[in-house]
Model the fold of this input.
Amino acid sequence: MDRPRITPSRTRCWTSRAVLALGVLALSVTPVVSVGAWLVMSDPAVAADVAAEGDLWPIVRAIAETIGDAVRDLLAMF
Done:
């Protein structure tokens, strides 16, 4: 006697994919947000510039420079 096959419900499949997507999104956004918060606290001139103009590009530029400096320093160690 063979048992009938039980197929997984589509709801369970959709839920697991949504949780996986949210996890990947959280893992990719968390470092950028933390570097941005650190930059705002460590360089108040950039924060004042963003508050005055309402333009986020100075923070984006400063985050890119900070990450670039960190990668350059990391590669210099090897």
Notes: The mean pLDDT is 82. Residues 63 and 69 are 10 Å apart (CA to CA). Helices lie at 10-42, 44-53, 57-77. The chain has three helices and no strands.
